[in-house]
Predict the structure of VOC domain-containing protein.
Amino acid sequence: MFAPKGSFSSFSVDDVARAREFYGQTLGLAVSDGAMGTLELSMPEGHRIFVYPKDNHEPATFTVLNLVVDDVEAAVDELNAAGVQTKIYDDPNLPTDEKGIARGMGPDIAWFKDPAGNVISVINPGSAAP
């Protein structure tokens, strides 16, 4: 039977230096240099995420990273103050408020993009209505 020993996630960017600054300085995540020009993001719960350079990078059209927070609105305010735009969707099928927060369709969640155009979210899984 298949039995993996562990797991990690990864996604590409077009500029590792900009990614290092964004994930380390703007988002405040623990970032270290990895092998072959990659970055390693060390997440609070101990997971690792590898960010690798790709010359022909195309931004993901889906959320590549969900950051769990206690208060989505407070997180959005902090992100906006740091220059991160969270109002990235204008879609009647995915209504968001003026801050870009989707509420009442599940957990409170807001999306934004990293410098490479990948979609990231802040989410409070416990905020979903019963």
